[in-house]
Amino acid sequence: xxxxxxxxxxxxxxxxxxxxxxxxxxxxxxxxxxxxxxxxxxxxxxxxxxxxxxxxxxxxxxxxxxxxxxxxxxxxxxxxxxxxxxxxxxxxxxxxxxxxxxxxxxxxxxxxxxxxxxxxxxxxxxxxxxxxxxxxxxxxxxxxxxxxxxxxxxxxxxxxxxxxxxxxxxxxxxxxxxxxxxxxxxxxxxxxxxxxxxxxxxxxxx
Length: 206
Prior knowledge:
This protein has a four-stranded antiparallel sheet. The two termini are about 35 Å apart. The chain has a domain of about 100 residues: 4-Layer Sandwich (Phosphatase 2c, domain 1). By secondary structure, the chain is α+β, with helices and mostly antiparallel strands. Helix 1 packs antiparallel against helix 2. The chain contains seven helices and seven strands.
């Protein structure tokens, strides 16, 4: 989370915890949809506990936290765990769709009809999160699955990308830079100001 000390510590801890938890337990569970979703949920809860405890141990890391998206691709499906305002998009048949819902104050205003999606881009409180990993002793992630078919493209990205580029711009960059889409996205976001850390991961189901 930008503006808080230890943000890079929180994000590294969360990624490491989730990765290890899933690697250690995936082979032990039945490969049913609910079981995979439960595994993702448990991995995020575990990561939240570790980050939260670390934030209490060291004064310098007080209030640190991180957004987190977790993806498992299995059997033509993408299983997603989500906390915060990083995002997962799916491109299918020339349509880019946001699969996650931001846990942010501005997103709530959009859902309530108080502001438009366009107004949300420049809202002064757009970085105010309602939920993050490590900020409280417990966290309830969104967990769900969607189809992931041949030809689909998955984009996981932080708000460092989506605060700089609108969704239409992201889609256009993906279309026009098939060889190195991640580099192109990051370069364009930096050209627009690059005001925050930019993370982008692409999975192409060729």
